[in-house]
Amino acid sequence: MTDAPHALHDKPEPVPLPEPREGIPPVVADPEGLAEVVAAFAGGTGPVAVDAERASGYRYGQRAYLVQLRREGAGSALIDPIACPDLSELNAALADTEWVLHAAPQDLPCLDGLGMRPTRLFDTELAGRLAGFSRVGLGPMVEHVLGYVLEKGHSAADWSTRPLPEPWLRYAALDVEVLVDLRHALEAELDRQGKLRWAHEEFAAIAAAGPPAPRTDPWRRTSQLHKVRRRRQLAVVRELWYTRDRIARERDVSPSRVVPDAALVSAALAMPHSPHLLAAINGFNRMSRRQLDDWLKAIEDARALPEEALPPTTAPQQGPPPPRAWNERDPAAAARLSAAKAALGELAERHRLPQENLITPDTVRRVCWEPPDGGDEAALAQALRDRGARPWQVELVAPVLAGVFARAGAAKAG
Question: Region (Disordered): which ranges (predicted)?
Answer without folding.
Answer: 1-24, 306-330
